[in-house]
Recover the amino acids of this structure.
């Protein structure tokens, strides 16, 4: 998953980026609204983590702006305001959730998972395809009685494929989902992760197919 963090507190931002990167997510950090707008113009995000009090404006105005553009990207507001009226106001503006500072990182991670589940129309952390079950919370693939553990970026890549079986994903698209702007990687990295997933899917009746010149897709064996 690719997240945009809009937060001007450098110490907090570094801590959030470090924690979510360890989970295998790609995190772009914007210290102000201008940078956030530039990031959104350059790519799409699965989730936005939005501070309210920023050097160049109010995050609520940014949230309104995104919703006016019919943006459906989920937004979790990071706020130091504890008044009920403030929280209700942010939800009414289009926020999907909020978390009050200071917060525990495990709670932030749980809220991110919950919002993304709702966005995908799911109530659980599991997705299945042709009898293969991906558990995003446990970080596992279950194939019959066999369970394969996934490393963080293997898990995030697997989430992309299981979210849309049969859809072709190009290497640039997969790189965009797995790596942030600050990470310098080549398309070979995608080949490596795809290769690892193929080994773990062996014997499952499900495979990642190469579509020459276009990319990869998850398909069931005929």
């Amino acid at each position: 998953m690719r997240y945009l963090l809009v937060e001007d507190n450098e110490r907090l931002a570094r801590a959030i980026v470090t924690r979510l990167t360890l989970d295998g997510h790609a995190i772009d950090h914007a210290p102000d609204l201008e940078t956030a707008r530039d990031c959104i113009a350059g790519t799409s995000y699965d989730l936005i983590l939005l501070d309210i009090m920023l050097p160049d404006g109010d995050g609520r105005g940014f949230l309104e702006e995104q919703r006016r553009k019919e943006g459906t990207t989920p937004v979790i507001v990071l706020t130091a305001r504890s008044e009920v009226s403030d929280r209700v106001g942010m939800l009414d503006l289009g926020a999907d959730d909020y978390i009050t500072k200071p917060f525990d990182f495990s709670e932030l991670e749980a809220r991110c998972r919950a919002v993304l589940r709702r966005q995908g129309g799911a109530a659980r952390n599991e997705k299945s395809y042709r009898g293969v079950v991906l558990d995003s919370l446990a970080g596992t693939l279950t194939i019959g009685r066999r369970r394969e553990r996934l490393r963080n970026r293997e898990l995030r890549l697997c989430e992309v494929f299981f979210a849309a079986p049969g859809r072709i994903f190009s290497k640039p698209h997969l790189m965009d989902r797995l790596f942030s702007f600050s990470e310098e990687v080549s398309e070979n990295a995608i080949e490596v992760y795809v290769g690892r997933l193929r080994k773990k899917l062996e014997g499952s009746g499900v495979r990642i197919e190469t579509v020459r010149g276009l990319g990869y897709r998850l398909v069931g064996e005929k």
Observations:
- DSSP finds eight helices and 13 strands in the chain.
- Residues 2-119 form a domain with the Rossmann fold fold (CATH 3.40.50.2300).
